[in-house]
Amino acid sequence: MKNSRVSSVKNRMRRILPAAIVCFLFLLFNMASCRNNMLPHHLKLSSALTCRVVGGLTRGQRAVCQDLPDAVSIAFEGLQLAVKECQHQFRWHRWNCSSLIAKSSNPHVSGIMKRGFRETAFLYALTSAGVAHAVARACAQGRLLSCGCDPLGYRASHDPRGRARANKWEWSGCSHNLAYGIEFSKRFLDAREQVDDLQSKINVHNNDAGRSILASHMEVRCKCHGLSGSCQLRTCWRTTPDFRVVASSIKRQYRKALIVAQEEMNKGLSILRGRPRGRRRSRAKPAPKNSLLFFERSPNFCEADPKIDSAGTSGRVCRIGRTSRTGSCNLLCCGRGHALMRRSSVKPCNCTFHWCCRVDCQRCVDEKWIAVCK
């Protein structure tokens, strides 16, 4: 009798155990998936996926991607920020960065990045500043495992000679880690360049110029503490500025970019020298660290040219008015003329607030005439 009971129990256990094991594994899988869903999206990317999804990476960049995949994903956010800002800065120019969005999330695969135009110099400076800007902010936001708040923010409370300033605040909060952002930008972007190639040296110089301009625009933000809102004590921290401020400063350097002297290119000297545009006979001088360098005259960008990713100006909206104005039809249309078109759009209008709490709006058709290049 006992043997029969024991055998029946064993049979039941044999049937129950596989199902129990399956249920246990299912619970473990769900718990792991829940933890993965709680993580930020960029931390869920494996190093292999991060490095394979984006094309145009060099061997050195892939090595960085294998070591720090989370930082590389933030770097691509900075590159896309730079491309969008490039479109804003050049929205009324013949070349308006439009092809960089359609190409890839890596703007360095674009044909214009392989040339020596002034626009190329602007792009190198802007993308290097964008990567440093994004990584510095991500460190302070806790989005990266390899860095945190800037531990050297207290250095701003000393003058260049190392003497303490009589500040009325204390360094506290979480300063953006610009030092790490610049270091990572150098490691990730300068890895694309060859040491002995003069064009690569020019690209590295423009990368450094963008990062230097970013560093020169760092801001100090403070918060007051005290009774009744008084500011008896302030805690301050360093932050990176709005990226549009940095891009506008790089755009000013673009307008006064220096062309590398021809004899320097022939000799391949390690010290880069430049001349102001239009001064061919002027004596070559060492290039300042914030200046942008180029060595090739830019085309007019009037016609589409896939080799340099130029979409041309046909179909672009232009401004009717002064001939010398940026974005004017005379300049933007390259003498081909323009056509007037009526553009209609639906916008909310005549909005009324009802207590409480609703806003009702009518839908109005807004029509306006625009000029489009032929």
User: How many domains is the backbone divided into?
Assistant: 2
Based on secondary structure, the structural category is alpha+beta
Uncertain stretches:
16-46, 154-166
Give the end-to-end Cα distance, rounded to a whole number of Å.
100 Å
Q: Round the Cα radius of gyration to an integer and report it.
A: 29 Å
Estimate the global geometry from the Cα principal axes: globular
User: How do the SSEs run, as a string of H and E?
Assistant: HHHHHHEHHEEHEHEEEEEEHEE
Report the helical percentage.
Answer: 40-55%
Biggest sheet strand line-up = 6-5-4-7
Strand content: 15-25%
Number of strands: 12
Count of separate DSSP helical elements: 11
Compute the average pLDDT: 80
Largest sheet: 4 strands, mixed
Question: What attributes does this structure have?
Answer:
alpha+beta; 2 domains; 374 residues; four-stranded mixed sheet; Endo-n-acetylneuraminidase fold; three-stranded mixed sheet
Description:
- The protein is α+β, with helices and mostly antiparallel strands.
- It folds into 2 domains: 45-312, no CATH class; 314-374, Wnt (Wingless and Int-1), C-terminal domain (Endo-n-acetylneuraminidase fold), CATH 3.30.2460.
- The protein is 42% helix and 18% strand.
- The protein has 11 helices and 12 strands.
- The protein has helices spanning 2-38, 47-53, 59-67, 69-89, 98-103, 118-141, 178-189, 198-216, 243-255, 262-267, 329-332, and strands at residues 169-171, 219-225, 233-239, 258-260, 273-276, 285-286, 293-294, 304-305, 310-311, 317-318, 338-354, 358-373.
- The protein has a 4-stranded mixed sheet with strand order 6-5-4-7. Strands 1-3-2 form a 3-stranded mixed sheet, with no helix packed on it. A 3-stranded antiparallel sheet has the order 10-12-11, with no helix packed on it.
- Strand 5 and strand 6 form a beta hairpin.
- Helix 3 (59-67) packs across helix 4.
- The radius of gyration is 29 Å and the shape is globular.
- Residues 16-46 and 154-166 have low confidence and may be disordered.
